[in-house]
Amino acid sequence: MAREFLERKGVEEARLDAELLVSHALGLDRLQLFLELERPITSSELDRARDLLVRRGRREPTAYVTGKREFYGRDFVVRTGVLIPRPETELIVDRGRELLAGAGREVAVADLGTGSGCLAVTLALELGDARVWGTDISADAVELARENAERLEAEVDFRVADGVSGLAAIVSERGGPLDLIVSNPPYIEPSEADSLAPEVREYEPEVALFAPAGDPDHWLRALLDAGRELLTPEGSLLVELGHMQAERARSLASDRGWDATVHEDLAGIERVFEAQRAAG
Ligand SMILES: C[S@@+](CC[C@H](N)C(=O)[O-])C[C@H]1O[C@@H](n2cnc3c(N)ncnc32)[C@H](O)[C@@H]1O
């Protein structure tokens, strides 16, 4: 019944979401839900499940309804006002680990536009010997990122700051450049808003989604321009790209004297831009 209800409302993965929401309402995980099929449901559990399904039927994202989303194998708290972490962003963590895991010294990493803190917290935990900062213009995001770091026992310095000037402040405060800057910046062109799923368009924050009108490359360009001053000579930039951005990203990088590679995600989409300063 729950599944049919969500299907009628146009929810894509209706069966999975119905299972997730019903198990959440009963305080079980999905496996326990099947193991306890015979257990009678109390009327308050039923009311709770109904409320969650109604919210999802209005196309509120499942992660906002349950208040959590898994990222790189860990549960992150999420809520309205802050972007829900996406699985394709995990590729930035994979590359960050490959670049820095064997450094043999403490490395310095900053995440611009940290949102829930998923990248900064995960890198802090995965890299171990690292000092990590996360910045965001949204105070709600920074508050949530701090909460996630505390819950997951990661040491990250989160701060409210605007754009690359926030990173420059970190570099001047610590008295030296960074080894890695990561970012999943807003890269959707505002004129494409109508093509987004209702879950994204109606529930996720505009500040997290949209690049300045007519300039989807704004953040990549800003990071390439500022990166020269902010990174060590061997330092790296890892930036998530939007649909069809890779070709422009490569040419922006070569025009500015960076060696760039673009990594594909599991769906074969060119997703993560990596750059180091070209030699000479
Ligand atoms: C696409 S979201 C990424 C969030 C998170 N890093 C993730 O991958 O789930 C972009 C983030 O950039 C932040 N942002 C937008 N404009 C900004 C600015 N001028 N300075 C700093 N952060 C900004 C948004 O608040 C949002 O949290």
Written overview of the protein:
- With 280 residues, the chain is α/β, with parallel strands linked by helices.
- It folds into two domains: 2-58, no CATH class; 69-277, Rossmann fold.
- Helix content is 45%, strand content 20%.
- The protein has 13 helices and nine strands.
- A seven-stranded mixed beta sheet has the order 5-4-3-6-7-9-8, with helices on both faces. Strands 1-2 form a two-stranded antiparallel sheet.
- Helix 7 links the parallel strand 3 and strand 4.
- The longest helix is centred in the first third of the chain and has 15 residues, at 43-57.
- The protein is globular, with a radius of gyration of 20 Å.
- 39% of the residues are buried.
- The model has no long low-confidence stretch (mean pLDDT 95).
- The structure holds S-adenosylmethionine.
- Residues 83, 85, 89, 113-116, 118-119, 135-138, 141, 162-163, 184-186, 207-208 line the site of S-adenosylmethionine.
